[in-house]
């Protein structure tokens, strides 16, 4: 028997390494963006968008994939960066934004801002508190700019603006633009607020409104209009900075002296403070924000303080604290907390640190959370949502029942050796419990032991060391022990041992049986310490698994394939063939301790060195680096929620993993707009809150976003691009949860053969009147082979324009690389399309500048109808669109027209083969009237392109579309273009080729 015990324990003690426990969840820092101090966060449960208010850069939104920046705009058009508070009206899709410069309403659907100040019904200019109640009424607190004078409680509903102060109840009269005492409105009754400075606002489930004041405690306005400010708060607790309601109707108040709890009747229950001698207390007594995480098994209260984050469990007894030393929290002053629908929690930080996120996709239950031991052997979820845990503590079970731990003592008599729970099996409302040393137990719905099966009771039961349980149907339970296989007939009252199989009376290769499972045909698969056998109730068979290998776990998937976890990897049997998986296939270890199938069909396995999930294509490993509490896993269990998996670990208690729905983000590491080579390199990267960057995978596509490449961990790809013209490269990141970026990164670029040249549109997609877009024409043989051109909108320093009396329009592009050698005889043509609103004087004053060592004027011809300016360049550089407030002459010489060029020299107005227009560029030495005409070879005038058109000094451009006065396409042939100004003339020949 002693040898059998030792053999049976092999499965339980394989490669026990160092014990490693981590803080519940995984901390991540939001990537560095412009915003730093996050003062408020709102989560939209309908759209799943997270809104961030900052004290330095307006409002940001995150849709799960990308961040977008918004800025409140005043009625005078001024941008406001400082945000004090946000409130979301999800039904109306409106965001309310409080600031020191008034209150803003942002319509999410129309992308429009409205601004409210004391001139339009606001009590005071600065707004530190905002709340939208369940009727859509807006409540707010306001104060003066210096924070000395409060505006009381403000309200805005469909009838107008109202306010409650210590003196009166008044309404805003827009006709006289003043506050009018309102005797016909809601009267003030009871004990009204004694301070007009409002710090926080909330509403309970009865519709009563709660207002936290600065120094006057908590005030309640009930649905009848009665005020009650008699809540028993004293000292620092009278400044209420945050209010939150739990689902039982209790009120949690965050103050400058801790946390106070009021019950449903607003009676003070208790207050919690920072106790320096007690680590199990609030981390800091200044509480700025509260968020309550509600879940099936209880509630967790999260408190953001001046010294970190504290979490209080459902029993209101156990604290867990986080700060920059004990966790990945990036700053200790917490201004906002909110949770999303994936269970992750977002923390708005002061100290210029932005946002930290606690990914609750990984969490743990350990001795700190009142588990009896961190060494767990078995885990199961029952139909009531209770979590059953078997630990190394002899003779008992831990059960987590809606946030409260309950213990069940299985036996009060001595067992053989140290008895631990090895397996659970739910039977309706009851639970069968297998132990290693005390036999088999049956536990009722009310957590009472109703039956015990052990050696000699009944007499044929072979061993008290039970390793595995499985059920063939509702009437038969199978138990694997260290002395063979037991069939038990179960009824409502009791289970009766029916038959015992062992190597002496059956083809079983061994008597230690740690793995059992039934297949789709009702056959029992029996895993032993020396191989596997299948029993159909009458006949035994050998499925021909390679080798006499130790079997630790068996599971069946939805296709009736059987998955077998062994000491040498995983084997899958599809009914005909075996498929094998090992560390070569990215399993974390070949010693498989457990295997199971999640409700969504994902195959999960536990090993002695981490867990892994199989999505039908690839195994993905998870270790303590991802959030697993310990890498040695004994058993798996699955929640009714298909995204949740439970792990019993040896040293890390219970780990829970919840698959999140947040997709990763994908970025292009390098961009370009024009390439001349055939083999084009693309570089990209990704980011995910739950997946280390090195573990991200990617797919890419060229031109067709439906034809994705195979999945790869490599962050670059070189693709062959044969055809000229516009192409699009797509790439998307894939995280460890198999979430795919739904908005792939896109790179639009043009392939141009140097000998042909071509026209491309940068930044926008069509050569038409577009906003702030850039168009480039590349002449044939202008670019060297293998060159790449990039064009990026940039923000530039405008101080260089001030002394030269130039005004920057805000439109600039960096076109590079700057050291690219261009053909000086074949300039590139640039056209910038602009919004008319960027022009402050008139469009004729616009000019293109480029930055060499200093800003230098290029010039350009303005087309007021298309709102475009065109010029030619022979060097790539940063270019900017400016207004000349006092134009200077470039060269006052007598020869006014110089540098005439035509690109291209051949055009096809009917679109057959060449560009459909020609660009003629030239330089003027000073402002002049210009006339340009087109003649055929016989000297007949075909068309006047411009007559006495006023042009500015510098580079100018005129276009001809290959058509005559009647807008008829000209026939193929040679044409002469003349350009005249003040007695100076230049000519250029161009060719029309229509076939």
The assigned structural class equals mainly beta
Low-confidence stretches: 1-24, 187-191, 763-770
- Biggest sheet strand line-up: 63-65-66-61-69-70-76-72-73
- Percent range for β-strand residues: over 45%
Mean pLDDT: 85
CATH topology of the domain at 752-888: Chondroitinase Ac, Chain A, domain 3
Biggest β-sheet strands, sense, barrel: 9 strands, mixed
Roughly how many Å is the radius of gyration?
Answer: 38 Å
Helical fraction equals: under 10%
How far apart the termini lie comes to 97 Å
Large-scale geometry: flat
Task: Report the top-level CATH class of the domain at 752-888.
Answer: Mainly Beta
CATH architecture type of the domain at 752-888: Sandwich
3D structure, described in words:
With 995 residues, the chain is mostly beta strands. β12 and β13 form a beta hairpin. It has two helices and 84 strands. The strands form 19 sheets. Strands 63-65-66-61-69-70-76-72-73 form a nine-stranded mixed β-sheet. Strands 10-11-12-13-14-15 form a six-stranded antiparallel β-sheet, with no helix packed on it. Among the domains are: 665-747, Sandwich (Immunoglobulin-like); 752-888, Chondroitinase Ac, Chain A, domain 3; 892-995, Immunoglobulin-like (Sandwich), CATH 2.60.40. Residues 1-24, 187-191 and 763-770 have low confidence and may be disordered.
């Amino acid at each position: 028997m002693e040898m059998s015990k030792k053999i049976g324990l092999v499965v339980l003690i394989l490669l026990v390494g160092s014990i490693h426990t981590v803080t519940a969840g995984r901390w991540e820092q939001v990537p560095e963006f412009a915003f730093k101090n996050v003062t408020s966060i709102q989560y939209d449960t309908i759209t799943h968008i997270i809104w961030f208010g900052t004290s330095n850069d307006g409002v940001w939104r995150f849709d799960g994939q990308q961040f977008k920046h918004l800025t409140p705009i005043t009625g005078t058009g001024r941008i406001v960066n400082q945000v004090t508070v946000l409130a979301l009206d999800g039904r109306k899709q409106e965001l309310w934004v409080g600031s020191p410069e008034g209150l803003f309403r942002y319509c999410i659907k129309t992308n429009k801002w409205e601004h409210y100040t004391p001139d339009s019904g606001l009590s005071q200019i600065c707004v530190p508190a905002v709340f939208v109640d369940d009727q859509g009424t807006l409540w707010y607190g306001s104060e003066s700019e210096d924070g000395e004078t409060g505006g009381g409680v403000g309200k805005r509903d469909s009838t107008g603006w109202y306010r409650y102060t210590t003196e009166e109840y008044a309404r805003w009269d827009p006709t006289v633009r003043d506050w009018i005492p309102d005797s016909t409105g809601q009267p003030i009754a009871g004990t009204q607020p004694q301070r007009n400075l409002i710090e926080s606002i909330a509403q309970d489930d009865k519709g009563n409104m709660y207002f936290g004041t600065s120094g006057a405690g908590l005030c309640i306005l009930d649905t009848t209009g009665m005020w009650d400010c008699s809540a028993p708060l004293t000292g620092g607790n009278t400044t209420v900075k945050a209010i939150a309601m739990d689902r039982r109707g209790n009120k949690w108040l965050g103050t400058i002296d801790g946390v106070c709890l009021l019950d449903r009747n607003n009676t003070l229950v208790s207050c919690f403070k920072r106790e320096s001698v007690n680590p199990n207390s609030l981390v800091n007594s200044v509480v700025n924000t509260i968020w309550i995480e509600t879940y099936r098994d209880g509630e967790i209260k999260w408190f953001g303080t001046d010294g970190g984050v504290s979490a209080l469990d459902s029993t209101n007894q156990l604290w867990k604290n986080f700060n920059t030393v004990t966790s990945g929290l990036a700053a200790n002053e917490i201004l906002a907390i909110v949770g999303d629908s994936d269970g992750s929690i977002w923390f708005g930080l002061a100290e210029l640190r932005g946002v930290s996120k606690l990914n609750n996709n990984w969490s743990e239950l350990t001795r700190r959370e009142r588990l009896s031991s961190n060494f767990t052997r078995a885990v199961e979820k029952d139909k009531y949502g209770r979590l059953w845990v078997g630990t190394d503590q002899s003779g008992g079970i831990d059960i987590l029942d809606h946030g409260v731990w309950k213990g069940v003592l299985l036996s009060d008599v001595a067992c053989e050796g140290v008895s631990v729970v090895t397996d659970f099996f739910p039977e309706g409302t009851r639970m069968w419990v297998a132990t290693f040393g005390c036999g088999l137990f049956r536990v009722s719905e009310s957590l009472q032991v109703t039956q015990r099966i052990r050696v000699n009771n009944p007499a044929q039961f072979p061993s008290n060391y039970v390793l595995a349980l499985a059920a063939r149907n509702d009437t038969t339970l199978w138990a694997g022990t260290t002395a063979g296989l037991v069939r038990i007939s179960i009824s409502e009252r009791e289970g009766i041992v029916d038959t015992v199989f062992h190597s002496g009376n059956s083809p079983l290769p061994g008597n230690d049986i740690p793995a059992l499972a039934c297949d789709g045909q009702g056959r029992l698969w029996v895993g032993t310490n020396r191989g596997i056998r299948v029993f159909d109730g009458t006949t035994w068979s050998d499925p021909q698994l390679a080798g006499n290998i130790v079997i630790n776990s068996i599971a069946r998937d939805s296709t009736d394939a059987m998955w077998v976890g062994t000491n040498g990897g995983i084997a899958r049997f599809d009914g005909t063939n075996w498929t094998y998986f090992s560390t070569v296939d990215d399993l974390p270890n070949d010693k498989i301790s457990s295997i199971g199938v999640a409700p969504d069909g994902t195959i999960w396995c536990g090993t002695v060195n981490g867990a892994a999930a199989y999505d039908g294509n690839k195994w993905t490993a998870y270790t303590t680096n991802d959030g697993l509490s310990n890498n040695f896993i004994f058993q798996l269990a699955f929640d009714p929620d298909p995204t949740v998996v439970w792990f019993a670990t040896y040293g890390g208690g219970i780990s829970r993993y919840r698959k999140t729905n947040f997709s990763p983000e994908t970025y292009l590491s390098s961009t370009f707009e024009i390439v001349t080579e055939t083999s084009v390199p693309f570089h990209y990267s990704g980011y995910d809150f739950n997946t280390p960057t090195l573990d991200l995978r990617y797919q890419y596509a060229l031109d067709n976003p439906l034809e994705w490449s195979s999945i790869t961990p490599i962050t670059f790809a070189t693709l062959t691009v044969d055809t000229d013209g516009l192409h699009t490269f797509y790439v998307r990141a894939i995280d460890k949860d198999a979430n795919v970026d739904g908005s792939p990164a896109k790179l639009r670029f043009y392939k141009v053969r140097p000998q042909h040249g071509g026209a491309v549109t940068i930044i926008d997609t069509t050569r038409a009147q577009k906003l702030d877009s850039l168009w480039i024409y590349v002449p044939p043989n202008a670019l060297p082979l293998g060159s790449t051109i990039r064009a990026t909108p940039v923000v530039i320093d405008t101080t260089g324009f001030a002394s030269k009396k130039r005004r920057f329009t805000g439109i600039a592009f960096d076109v590079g690389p700057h050291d690219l050698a261009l053909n000086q005889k074949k300039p590139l043509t640039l056209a910038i399309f602009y919004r008319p609103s960027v022009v402050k004087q008139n469009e004729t004053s616009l000019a293109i500048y480029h930055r060499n060592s200093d800003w230098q004027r290029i010039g350009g011809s303005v087309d007021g109808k298309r709102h475009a300016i065109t010029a030619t360049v022979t060097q790539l550089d940063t270019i900017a669109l400016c207004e000349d407030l006092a134009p200077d002459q470039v060269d006052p010489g007598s020869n006014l027209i110089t540098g005439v060029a035509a690109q291209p020299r051949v055009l096809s107005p009917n679109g057959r083969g060449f560009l459909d227009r020609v660009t003629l560029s030239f330089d003027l030495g000073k402002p002049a009237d210009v006339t340009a005409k087109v003649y055929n070879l016989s000297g007949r005038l075909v068309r006047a392109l411009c007559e006495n058109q006023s042009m500015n000094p510098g580079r100018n451009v005129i276009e001809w579309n290959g058509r005559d006065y009647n807008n008829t396409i000209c026939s193929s042939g040679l044409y002469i273009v003349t350009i005249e100004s003040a007695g100076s003339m230049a000519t250029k020949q161009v060719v029309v080729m229509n076939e």
